[in-house]
Specification:
The protein is α+β, with helices and mostly antiparallel strands. About 25% of the residues lie in helices and about 35% in strands. The strands form two sheets. A six-stranded mixed beta sheet has the order 1-4-5-6-7-8, sandwiched between helices. It is globular. The termini are far apart. The relative contact order is 0.19.
Length: about 140
Amino acid sequence: MSKRVSHTKRTMDYCAARSIYACVVEKWIPNTSIRKDAFGFGDILAMDALHGAVLVQVCEDNGGGMPSHVRKIQVECVIEATAWLMRGNRIYVVGWGQRAATGREWVPRFMELVLDEQGDLDAYVRRGLQGVDDAKESG
């Protein structure tokens, strides 16, 4: 029987493979069975080569996991998320799903939360985080 790999581990491996500096900022609170995200929505802090600091919320992509995590940030963490973005940082939600077309391998999908003209949090599908090697090719 194979051991289940967490989506946080998958995201950290994704970052490492692309020379993206990242660390887990989600904390386990002993004796409570509770995990606490940074600012209520950050599982991983990454340094995107083109954009600087990125807080990443990691989730399951299958079954509506991504939209519910985006809504959580937009509603429950709106003050913290807005403050994070107003300081020039970024927020990504990374959803991991198994795609039949890829032989059931786990594939990430990325959404970025941004502030619109009215200052509200909006989400857009993105290609992914930029690593050191990706930035060299882009620049």
